[in-house]
Amino acid sequence: MKFFNYSNLTSIRMNDDNTVSIYDEGITLIFDEKDKPRFVNAKTGETVTEYSGLATDKNNVRSWAIAYVKASGTSNKHYHNERKEIYYIVSGIAKIVIDTEESILSPGECIEIHPKQIHQIFNVGDEPLALIVRCSPSWIASDYCIANDLKMTCC
Q1: CA-CA distance, 112 to 104, in Å (whole number)?
Q2: What is the distance of C-alpha 18 from the center of its chain?
Q3: CB atoms within 10 A of CB 24
Q4: Which site among 18, 24, 66, 109 is 20 to 30 Å from 129 CA-CA?
């Protein structure tokens, strides 16, 4: 079981029964991955499952998801025009690049990503990387913008 705190506002607990308890703004939310929308990027090794948000419970204020990145895998380099994200590391070792700044995060650590910041996460450990992602307002595909050296496009 792992327990996180972020600015004394949010706590996350990974439970032994494969559920996740999230304490957010005075509300306790309990999630599992069963029957939830899942995005798999076989090219990069990233899998994201939305626990709560527009696709699952029509919540437009915030969304919660779990992301897994295989060993030596990565996410796409991307940004969001309107969304703020917080990444909570559950297991594995993450290198996160935000604009030009690199950070190494271990289980129990988190990082905040603001709108328009180009970011990418890398699994630099030998085991799968797992992280909980809080997005506010809720994640939508039209605000997921791919960034690479040649062009930037919103999906």
Answers
A1: 13
A2: 17
A3: 15
A4: 24
Q: How many domains does the chain have?
A: 1
Q: Quick one: residue 54, left, alpha or beta (phi over 0 = left, psi -120 to 50 = alpha)?
A: alpha
Q: Which domain holds residue 33?
A: 2-142
pLDDT in tens, 56-95: 899 899 999 999 999 999 999 999 999 999 999 989 999 9
For position 89, which CATH number holds?
2.60.120.10
**What's the pTM?**
0.86
Q: How far apart are CA 77 and CA 140, in angstroms?
A: 17
- Angle subtended at Cα 12 by Cα 80 and Cα 114, rounded to the nearest 5 degrees: 20
Instruction: Report the amino acid identity of residue 106.
Output: S
Instruction: Answer yes or no: is 27 within a domain.
Output: yes
